[in-house]
DNA sequence: TTGTAGGCGTTATCAG
DNA sequence: CTGATAACGCCTACAA
């Protein structure tokens, strides 16, 4: 007794109506007599009718599904962004198809293909760390498929995007460390072809300059992955200097925590000997001892904003969008690792 | 100049073939002359033909999409499970549609509707913490839509599922604490209608009994959410006892870390005064000071296994599946918070 | 080996 | 206000 789904035509037959009439009754759209509208709805309810979205999608040319590509989902940041994306998308009646690039360029390209084939109505992307060019997005743009980037984009690219003002984040954080009286501030940074790491670094530099301090090359350490393990490596480098730093601003929380552990092992006290600040407000950053000063990026808002931007593009009939950028202001969270007297949020 | 996507019939026209021939050539399926096969593929390539999956899905009655419902995605556990799900699903040519229930029953019910309407070929679910019954899954089963639960299921329910042997996890962890010489071991648990919390608790009880120790009611604290904030609350309760515990086994890492912080604030040393163990191997559990002993659940494997089970069900033509359960063995990770001499992984 | 025809479930466009 | 009919793009008997 395998029940087939009831379709619009089942209802039509039962009620001696034309399918088109039923369709209209169901979608409330055109002019329909209240009487038949009611009859149709009641029977639909009774037969537990569920519209076949695939058919509708095929007919209408839109699937009501958004594609999302993120480097990964097991970090705090993207998990929250995805949460924001999903929430807003669902509210607007869109489903979300999720893909992870695993920080891999080739995988990302495959994801793009997948989503295009799945006929999504638009794509949201945050670039993988190994992505240096846009060529796998060419097809998307040729197809005039709405495309919005978030957080990670290529430096200097002209695309629609929602990003955090990483420059401000880097600037404010460095300024905070300066305000604490620190003068030799080191920096742990990530790959500079990604806007986020580049901008944080730029903010750091500018803050130093504004304080009439030089940017000392030996105090800047750039990593490829900004992983936990990079922390100890960075610390080794810094402590080997003739004049080690009295503060470190890391462009990522993972590396910061790695550094924290390494500093402790070297017998240095945080923040007394070395102040430490991260970036990203990962879950664990408030669970370390001392708790890590970091920068919050409004992850969920970012996801929501990205979806709204994408939906706008989808709604516009003229498929000629000019790149539009939304910039969110980050927030410095001062915690124990940077302030001798623990303080509250700033900015 | 809005390019329409090229369809199978465009190719057919261009090559003076029937659409069916092209279709077959493209899917390599039936017997086709090598010559035309080649011609078709070449033109397809040249025109950058992309199959319209919606149409195929409509025709074949399967969308090659799996639906996933998780309580949330911003914790380590589900993020990793989803990663595993996605990986295996993609390899098998399936897309993943993601929904979060936000630990809310009503939201979960809505998610189910959404996925059914999206015509997914099967659904993977981990129950929200506020879900006490299966009634919103009735329709899924009526429709004979493949359904697999993972991790969180209702205690004693007969469904296909992939779970961790939480009983063993609880047992082994408690045994580990006993092996460390602890005799008054407290337990922080979660809602008992969920298998995971119930089984961890059962394991705890049995380990005590096997050591000829009583399960003392005052040492067992059950929480609704197992959040970070529950930790301090639990600690307050335990320290107010005439005879406080010398160890705590928490059914979740968050509560454990909250407890860790509270213990420190009370001037107690971990593990010297109180040994502490969590459950879940959250990212942060290895970043605390001391590092937290916990239980790893093979999250990604769980996701993969769940997908494989679901795919099996999808492939079976007879839509008469008998509930099948896969049980993964957890792994106790001994770290600083429970062992005076830090040790290695056990089990 | 290839072509013909019908249909998956909806929606849109015409008439009536 | 309602009905008939033609797509949407693809697949699959069945026929040639």
TrEMBL record, chains A, B:
Keyword Transcription: yes
SMART domains: HTH_LACI
InterPro entries on file: HTH_LacI, Lambda_DNA-bd_dom_sf, Peripla_BP/Lac1_sug-bd_dom, Peripla_BP_I
CDD domains referenced in this protein's UniProt entry, alphabetically: HTH_LacI, PBP1_LacI_sugar_binding-like
UniProt domain HTH lacI-type: residue ranges: 6-60
Any one Pfam family match given in the protein's UniProt record, by short name: LacI
GO molecular function: DNA-binding transcription factor activity; transcription cis-regulatory region binding
Keyword terms of this UniProt record: DNA-binding, Transcription, Transcription regulation
PANTHER family listed in its UniProt record: HTH-TYPE TRANSCRIPTIONAL REGULATOR GALS, LACI-RELATED TRANSCRIPTIONAL REPRESSOR
Protein's recorded name: HTH lacI-type domain-containing protein
Organism the protein comes from: Hymenobacter lapidarius
């Amino acid at each position: 007794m395998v029940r087939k789904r009831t379709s619009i035509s089942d209802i039509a037959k039962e009620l001696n109506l034309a399918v088109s009439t039923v369709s209209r009754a169901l979608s409330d759209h055109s002019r329909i007599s209240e009487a038949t509208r009611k009859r149709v709805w009641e029977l639909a309810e009774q037969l537990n009718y569920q519209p076949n979205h695939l058919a509708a999608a095929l007919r209408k040319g839109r699937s009501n599904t958004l594609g999302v590509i993120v480097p990964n989902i097991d970090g705090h940041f993207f998990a929250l962004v995805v949460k924001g994306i999903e929430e807003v998308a669902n509210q607007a009646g869109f489903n979300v198809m999720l893909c992870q690039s695993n920080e891999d360029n080739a995988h990302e390209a495959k994801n793009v293909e997948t989503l295009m084939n799945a006929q999504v109505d638009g794509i949201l992307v945050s670039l993988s760390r190994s992505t240096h060019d846009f060529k796998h997005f060419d097809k998307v743009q040729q197809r005039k498929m709405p495309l919005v980037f978030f957080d990670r984009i290529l430096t200097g690219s002209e695309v629609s995007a929602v990003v955090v003002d990483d420059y401000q984040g880097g600037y404010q954080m460095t300024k905070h460390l300066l305000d604490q009286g620190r003068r030799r501030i080191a920096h742990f940074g990530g790959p500079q072809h990604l806007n986020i790491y580049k901008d944080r670094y730029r903010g750091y530099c500018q803050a130093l300059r504004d304080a009439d301090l030089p940017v000392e090359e030996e105090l800047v350490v750039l990593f490829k992955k900004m992983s936990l393990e990079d922390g100890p490596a960075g610390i080794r480098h810094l402590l080997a200097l003739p004049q080690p730093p009295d503060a470190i601003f890391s462009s990522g929380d993972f590396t910061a925590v790695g550094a924290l552990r390494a500093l402790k092992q070297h017998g240095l006290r945080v923040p007394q000997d070395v102040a430490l600040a991260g970036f990203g407000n990962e879950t664990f950053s408030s669970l370390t001892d001392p708790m890590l000063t970091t920068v919050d990026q409004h992850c969920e808002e970012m996801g929501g904003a990205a979806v709204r931007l994408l939906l706008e593009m989808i709604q516009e009939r003229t498929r000629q969008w000019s790149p539009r950028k939304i910039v969110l202001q980050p927030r410095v969270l001062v915690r124990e690792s940077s302030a001798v007297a623990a303080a509250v949020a700033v900015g």
